[in-house]
Amino acid sequence: MTPRDYLMHVGGAPMAASGGRTLDSVDPATGEVWARIPDATAQDVDTAVAAARAAFRDPAWAGLTATARGRLLNRVADLVDANADSLARTETRDNGKLLREMKAQALALGRWYRFFGGLADKVDGTVPPMDFPTIMGYTVREPVGVVAAIAPWNSPLLLATWKLAPALAAGNTVVAKPSEYTSASLVELVELFVEAGFPPGVVNVVTGTGAGAGAALTSHPDIDHIAFTGGPESAKAIGRAAADSLTPTTFELGGKSANVVFADADLDAAEAGVLAGIFAASGQTCIAGSRLLVQRDIADAFVARIAARAETIRLGDPTAEDTQMGPAATPPQLERIVGMVEDAVAAGATVATGGRRPDEERLAAGLFYPPTVLTGLRPDDHIAQNEVFGPVLSVLTFEDEAEAVEIANGTRYSLAAGIWTRDVKRAHRVARALDAGTVWVNTYRAVSPLMPFGGSGLSGHGRESGIEAMNAYTKTKSVWIELSEEVQDPFVLRV
């Protein structure tokens, strides 16, 4: 087939890369080049940032009321709903995730735009009771300016939306950069913002490599906030670049999340939750429950259940209804998965199931890796401490509640965790003790625009979704008004 050519979107119009270079987008299920995207230069990034800055000051955007911004976001939601199937198919073609999962995500996007559209005119200031008898004071929350929104390859539209919706609701303008592996869907999404009536330059998309367009964007002195989802090493580089301009950041960087199963749990529910936590989306989610912590009393029987169920998971074409797990999204990611499992086995881990690439002819052209369960691990083993971002489950056992918490908290990540127990008191105790930004009890892998999401440590900082997300995209201004006719002593600070 002839690959489809995509263009960037800058200043309200399509734009090719000024250097004329493009990047191939490869379908990870087939190995086929299906699209080409522009490889933006630093000059292209300058153009996009300048367009965003001009739009931020333009009355066509700056003069809108917060209510009017909310209406625009609601129009986007309607258009996303209407185009969800097409957007989902593009994402599946780009990253290899199941079409039914991508459809579910695409249909959910409107919830974020509607939530933040409704919130746009409810972000207000305060009137503090001043301790000066003749002074009236109040605060207002204003947009920060131009936001760089950088989305990863695993859920491009959802994780871009987590940045776009609150940033635009607050009145900012945006330069978005998707992963070079999965750019097509975000370019398609921005066309819906144009159709919804957003002024030119309010939402811009540049495409290209992290080392090229990404570095130019995150080091740009006219960016007022950087929102990034990705890995810790990339975040460190972004943080160093942002430091030169003191640009604030929001980082969501993944995790090594513990799924903690107590002996009193509903084991049928726990089994489903563990499978969802690590094998859904081929384990390529920041919230993957990649560490199974299971109480020793039930460990052998429960792990046997997980391994047996994992062996029945059908790999294949992500667009097929009977496929349960698709390929890894990129060749480097597949290499990382293979290498980490091989190193773990060499260090003494036992493979309960999986552990090597499938040899079926129908899977040969794709980037497939089977559901893998590793046992015989220690909490400080490399694979139990570091994110694989693939369908690899590390099994650890614990004796009691205290040991479960100690092991769960024993990594540098703190994004999410799961608890499986029928004891409501234990559920609350352990949820309170776990160092995690999100704790699911008797469920796993659920998100909502109403609930804040994020972590600390190597899982990043700041929060996306929920009312708290608006904090990153607004700044507080204090206004003092003297009500008396008194003339102030010019040489004495009023305190």
Automatic annotation (TrEMBL):
One of its GO terms (molecular function) is oxidoreductase activity, acting on the aldehyde or oxo group of donors, NAD or NADP as acceptor. The keyword Oxidoreductase applies. The active site is at residue 252. Keywords: Oxidoreductase. It holds the Pfam family Aldedh. InterPro entries: Ald_DH/histidinol_DH (IPR016161), Ald_DH_C (IPR016163), Ald_DH_CS_CYS (IPR016160), Ald_DH_CS_GLU (IPR029510), Ald_DH_N (IPR016162), Aldehyde_DH_dom (IPR015590). Residues 19-479 form the Aldehyde dehydrogenase domain. Belongs to the aldehyde dehydrogenase family. This is Aldehyde dehydrogenase. It comes from Baekduia soli.
